[in-house]
Design goal:
alpha/beta; single chain; six-stranded parallel beta sheet; five-stranded mixed beta sheet; 7 helices
Length: 245
């Protein structure tokens, strides 16, 4: 059953500290508006995210909903430090993410991954699927054998091992999103932020991808923040719903 939280807030009451995997407090992300020939003068700011509080319990799925342009995607990117916040804090497993640098940040990022909205745009068309799925391991300097193999990842998302030698354009939209999901779980993360994971897919495929996400959560013990505007999808997958205005 889902419950609607206060605007821009979703918190489970009386949660023990050990039960909270992700905690966001008063998060702000402002983008400057500049003027002048070389944009040297700031004349204002766009408040993309302004004062958001969010708590995500371990193993839960939080649905983050709101109209287009309200800052849902920016919030997700700020949690992962794909954009830097203007203010507030993001704590992951008790550690302030925005105080980390260098190798400490790299290790933390292994535990937080993202599934992007457009599977075609998020996959390099020049890379084979094998290269796509081994790139996270190479980027983090992880030896072969320390994480799941490419055939194992493909099997987890319902694709044949023969897919490894093919390229993104050879797959349907639903299959490409499965590849994006396989990439997200390649490093055995604890948290996955799914940014509109089914909005670019046909309605007939959306239910299959949602079911896959639920199966992976059960098998791998994942925690999800699912960003969406389709309330039917959120109702199906989310334990708690947070609304952004």
């Amino acid at each position: 059953m889902s419950e609607t939280a206060e605007p821009a807030t979703a918190a489970q009451p009386n949660l023990a500290a050990d039960d909270v995997l992700l905690s966001v407090r008063d998060l702000q992300v402002y983008f400057p508006i500049r003027s002048g020939v070389v944009f040297e003068r700031q004349i204002g700011a766009v408040k993309a995210v302004d004062g958001v509080d969010l708590e995500v319990p371990r193993g839960a799925t939080i649905g983050l909903v709101g109209e287009s342009g309200c800052g849902k995607t920016t919030l997700g990117r700020a949690v992962l430090r794909l954009v830097e916040p203007t203010g507030g804090t993001v704590s992951f497993d008790g550690i302030d993410v925005h105080t980390l640098e260098g190798e400490d940040l790299r290790r933390m990022r292994r535990r937080m991954q993202m599934i992007f909205q457009d599977p075609m745009a998020s996959l390099d068309p020049r890379q084979s699927i094998e290269s796509v799925l081994t790139e996270p391991r190479r980027a983090h300097g992880i030896e072969v054998g320390e994480t799941r193999t490419v055939p194992e990842l493909l099997d987890l998302v319902g694709l044949p091992s023969s897919a490894a030698g093919r390229y993104p354009h050879e797959f349907s939209g639903g299959q490409r999103q499965r590849i994006g999901i396989a990439r997200a779980i390649a490093l055995d993360p604890d948290l996955i932020i799914a940014d509109e994971p089914v909005s670019a897919l046909d309605v007939s495929i959306q239910a299959q991808v949602v079911n896959l996400l639920e199966e992976l959560q059960d098998r791998l013990g994942l925690t999800y923040v699912v960003i969406a505007h389709d309330l039917a999808v959120v109702r199906h997958i989310a334990d708690v719903v947070a609304v952004m205005y």
